[in-house]
Write a structure and sequence with these properties.
heterodimer, A: 140 residues, alpha+beta, Sufe protein. Chain: A, 3-stranded antiparallel β-sheet, B: 393 residues, alpha/beta, Aspartate Aminotransferase, domain 1, Aspartate Aminotransferase, domain 2, 2 domains, 7-stranded mixed β-sheet, 4-stranded antiparallel β-sheet, 11 helices, 36% helix, Cysteine desulfuration protein SufE (chain A), Fe-S_metab-assoc_dom (chain A), EC 2.8.1.7 (chain B)
Chain lengths: 140, 393
């Protein structure tokens, strides 16, 4: 199944050298609204070995949205891409989404469990939140 | 490839279209042809289990294994090869000492420093000891005059060289102080055995631990020197090969070193340590030390003259590692970008979280050197840093 936003990201990164990819990630990171200091709590922290990542979620009109932030710019740039893909979707859709763009833009190595930016834990957390939201909505 | 680097086939490699500059040697060193060939030849011509077989191959393997022990023993200046046990590495060696000394450590105190690797912290805590750090100044020089040994201090466990800063601790002075109080000293030599001459008799330590893979030998092997005066320690591990007589009622143990080597050891690994020592000796320990010291000083000078770079630690003597951060740049970002420039560095806390906490930082970028690194490698490191800075402005 293809996804228009993910395909758009893949096009943006297509043919770029590594350093240009990082440049693009850093640019995306700079454009991402930083999370308030007050929201950077332990509870909102996703534990990763090297860069710290914070997550918040909220629902609007039945759709789920996230805020993500990181103290490392390249990680934050990846967060910005993730947000473009997952935000403003129904929880069930997010819980089941196949994030194929990560591999296609060459960031698959960031996905391995041992990899220090913990991208895998971030995705896991996003999907857990989405699943919980969906489960709750079906109970109601 | 020039100098020592031509002996290391992997260093010929290109990564991301650029000649590899390998500066992660404190994590592990690359292997010279002679070590690779020794391991390969051993499996092709001599391999069998050791010490137990009566047949030809077993005798050949046992001979080679014991020759390697003798080489390690001579290399660190032990009184006899019986003081050298092969372990799985430094971490394993320290854990074995912690296990053996557990009865005396439990509820008492081990004196360490604030720069220790987690492997010289956690095993003591697991043995039930409390840890106290010897004070140091803001440059990470140990304040040896302030050492306070109490009746609860049962061991001093100290790194010879910091894996983060490259600071060299005066271990001889520490053992002298310890002797006055009859407290044993363990030296974590994981980051010194490949850089500095070691002589355990001269140092006067009771235990010394090191890893093979950080001194150009195989992974999964290391050594523990245990002074003769601890020849009757309770072994940390029990099993085959380390016993004298076994009955269901009672077991008696072999004399060291076999007493401390339960089960089949990493035979090829041990032999590779012998080959690595042969290699370093052939290249000349004095030559290596001189070359490494030139490259290290050059790297430090280049980093110190950069405006937006903070270098951590500044002790009287340094070698191996240099840790730094770029102002306003996360160490992880810096490491990723430098990787794509072909420069392999390590980023993070380097398994030394207490030290990171004392600097109030999350981590550093660490460049760590081995005998094959050159001033040109340092230039590439600096270019990498400049590129990172450029991408951030």
């Amino acid at each position: 199944m293809t996804d228009a936003i993910q395909d758009e990201i893949i096009r943006e990164f297509d043919g770029l050298e590594w350093l240009d990819r990082y440049d693009l990630l850093i640019t995306s990171a700079k454009e991402l609204e930083p999370m308030d200091e007050d929201s950077r709590t332990d509870e909102n922290t996703i534990s990763g070995c090297q860069s710290r990542v914070w997550i918040q979620s909220y629902k609007r009109d039945g759709k789920l949205n996230f805020n993500l932030d990181s103290d490392a710019m390249i990680t934050k740039g990846i967060m910005a891409l993730l947000l473009r893909v997952v935000n403003n979707r129904h929880p069930q859709e997010i819980a089941n989404i196949d994030l194929y763009f990560i591999e296609r833009i060459g960031l698959k190595s960031n996905l391995s469990p041992a990899r220090s930016n913990g991208l895998e834990s971030i995705i896991k957390r996003i999907k857990e939140i989405a699943k919980n939201e969906f489960d709750q909505s079906t109970v109601q | 490839m020039t100098g020592f680097a031509k002996d290391f086939p992997i260093l010929d490699k290109e990564v991301y279209g650029k000649q590899l500059v390998y500066l992660d040697n404190a994590a592990t060193t690359q292997k010279p042809n002679s070590v690779i060939d020794t391991i390969s030849d051993f499996y092709k011509t001599d391999y069998s289990n050791i010490h137990r077989g009566v047949h030809y191959l077993s005798e050949r393997s046992s001979e080679k294994y014991e020759e390697a022990r003798k080489k390690v023993s001579d290399f660190i200046g032990a009184r006899n090869p019986g003081e050298v046990t092969f372990t799985a590495g430094t971490t394993d060696a320290i854990n074995q000492v912690a296990r053996s000394l557990e009865p005396s450590l439990k509820g008492n105190e081990v004196l360490v420093t604030g720069v220790e690797h987690h492997s010289n912290i956690v095993p003591w805590q697991m043995a039930g000891a409390k840890l106290r750090a010897i004070q140091m100044d803001e440059d990470c020089n140990l304040l040896l005059d302030s050492i306070d040994i109490t009746k609860e201090t049962k061991l001093i466990a100290i790194s010879h060289v910091s894996n983060v800063l490259g600071s060299v601790n005066d271990i001889k002075k520490i053992t002298e102080i310890a002797k006055d109080h009859d407290v044993p000293v363990l030296v974590d030599a994981a980051q010194s055995i490949q850089h500095l001459p070691l002589d355990v008799k001269n140092i006067g330590c009771d235990f010394l631990a090191a890893s093979g893979h950080k001194m150009y030998a195989d992974t999964g092997v290391g050594m523990l020197y245990t002074s003769d005066r601890f020849s009757d320690l309770m072994p940390a591990k029990g099993g085959g090969g380390m016993v004298d007589k076994v009955s269901l009622e009672k077991t008696t143990y072999q004399e060291p070193p076999l007493r401390y080597e339960a089960g089949t050891p990493h035979i090829a690994g041990a032999i590779s340590m012998g080959a690595a020592i042969d290699y370093m000796q052939k290249r000349g320990l004095d030559n290596i030390e001189k070359h490494e010291s030139d490259v290290y000083s050059y790297a430090r000078d280049r980093l110190l003259e950069m405006d937006n770079v903070t270098v951590y630690g500044n002790t009287d003597r340094m070698c191996g590692s240099i840790s730094f951060n770029l102002d306003q740049v996360h160490h992880y970002d810096a490491g990723l970008i430098m990787d794509k420039m072909g420069v392999a560095v390590r980023t993070g806390h380097h398994c030394a979280q207490p030290l990171m906490r004392s600097f109030a930082i999350e981590g550093t970028v660490r460049a760590s050197f081995a005998l094959y690194n050159t001033k040109e490698d340092v230039d590439r490191l600096i270019e990498g840093i400049e590129k990172v800075e450029m991408m951030y402005t």
